[in-house]
Design brief:
alpha/beta; TIM Barrel; eight-stranded parallel beta barrel; 12 helices; binds pyridoxal-5'-phosphate
Length: 407
């Protein structure tokens, strides 16, 4: 699994591929670390493995001191194989594996309970290890729509994760833990997905942590604010704004000397650094409409086909001053699905084969979330700070696809 030879920057790479620019990645890593240290000091930066589990990226972030936030046995196994210490695992999610749960608990990693059966496990493990002292967190589910009516929620009916505050299920979960002599309910996990990702919602979440800690008299070792921030966009808030507000609210009740602040961003950490690069292969005139056929696809950028905006720029293969401007062009993808159309260009330079369409802030999630549909995972190249290129993942071929298949 060691890296392939470095490639020269000048080499023309076969599209489509994703590129990660180390310089931009480092910029956002510093932004996060500085925001945590300047506003709270006692903080842990986690990284949401599901967002993008590219082994190169996980290894890079591990070396930058990040913890691995995992939500499945597979992710846990990957993080351990890549060398994350067990103590640096944050185990979240509603579907946990009993063996992984026990291993993380015994190693002193972080576990945020989410489901009913995890309380049963804690009761069993408390009895099984009477001489050990365990700390666990609970994921809080509260009505964000009531807290922040102006937010656009990720799901209209509200979130489905964690223990519900309003109907008393959270209180029951906490009291079940409090009855165990060697277990402390030591953390609150507040991750909440909103589409609007505003600073205000994070302020409200932090206030919620204060309210719950006071109401149930919790002595908290940590507060995990989750992910869900904007990143890599100049027109949106960044980590400095979020953590200024979060810490202002938390400091009304918590002391950084006693309570660690955890963040577990995913896409906000890597958006700025990632691009998806494609080439125009053909231009077709169909009854007066110009379809520009490229070798990348909407499935590589937005597999659920919900987005209609794809920030991009174009690198022209030849002198554009001698090209015509045309009223309308539709840039399309490489699958043979009609919906695989990315964006329309109006009254602009005619594209020709060889031009490159480069999608900016693209691939954060989809580098690993791309479906294996018609084509397999594209390659990923890292552009190091000195300009050299490194192959972090070769494009998948049938060699990979045929693995573990039997005919
Ligand atoms: C528990 C948890 N933490 C962190 C994240 C990362 O979120 P994002 O990629 O929006 O930062 C997610 C994503 O859904 C999540 O569910």
């Amino acid at each position: 699994m060691k890296g392939l030879d470095n490639l020269m920057i000048k080499e023309q790479l076969n599209t489509p591929f994703y590129r990660i620019k180390e310089k931009d990645l480092l910029y956002d890593i510093s932004l996060l670390k500085d925001a945590l240290s300047q506003n709270w000091g006692n903080a842990i930066a986690g990284y949401s493995v599901k967002t993008n589990s590219l082994p190169w990226l996980l290894t890079y972030l591990k070396e930058q001191g990040f913890y691995a936030e995992v939500v499945s046995e597979t992710e846990y196994d990957l993080a351990i194989r890549l060398g994350f210490p067990q103590k640096h695992i944050i185990y979240n999610g509603p579907i946990k594996n009993r063996k992984v749960f026990e291993a993380v608990l015994l190693a002193g990693g972080y576990i945020n309970l989410d489901s009913g059966y995890e309380l049963d496990w804690m009761e069993e493990l408390s009895a099984l290890y009477p001489n050990r002292r365990f700390k666990v967190g609970v994921r809080v589910n509260y009505d964000i729509a009531a807290l922040c009516p102006e937010e656009t929620l990720a799901a209209e009916e509200g979130g489905r994760f964690g223990y519900c505050y309003e109907n008393g299920v959270l209180e029951t979960a906490l009291s079940r833990l409090q009855r165990l002599p060697n277990v402390q309910a030591a953390g609150l996990h507040l991750h909440s997905s909103t589409q609007s990702r505003t600073v205000q919602v994070f302020g409200a979440l932090a206030r919620m942590a204060v309210r719950i800690a006071k109401e149930y008299r919790l002595s908290l070792s940590y507060i995990d604010m989750g992910g869900g921030y904007f990143g890599g966009r100049d027109d949106k808030p960044d980590y400095r704004d979020y953590f200024r507000e979060i810490c202002r609210e938390l400091s009304a009740f918590f002391d950084p000397k006693e309570t660690t602040l955890i963040a577990e961003p995913g896409v906000s950490l890597i958006s700025r650094a990632t691009t998806f690069e494609t080439t125009v292969l053909d231009v077709k005139d169909i009854r007066g409409r110009n379809f520009v056929v490229t070798d990348g696809s909407r499935t590589n950028l937005n597999p659920l086909v919900t987005r209609h905006v794809y920030p991009h720029h174009i690198e022209y293969v030849s002198d554009t001053s001698v090209r015509n401007k045309i009223p309308d062009q539709w840039v399309c993808g490489a699958t043979c699905m009609e919906y695989d159309r990315l964006f329309e260009i109006r009254d602009d330079i005619a594209l020709i084969p060889g031009d490159r369409v480069i999608y900016d802030t693209a691939g954060g999630y989809t580098m690993c979330l791309s479906p294996l549909f018609i084509n397999y995972f594209p390659a990923v190249y890292i552009e190091h700070t000195d300009g050299s290129l490194f192959t972090a993942r070769k494009a998948w071929t049938n060699e990979e696809f045929l693995q573990l298949n039997y005919i």
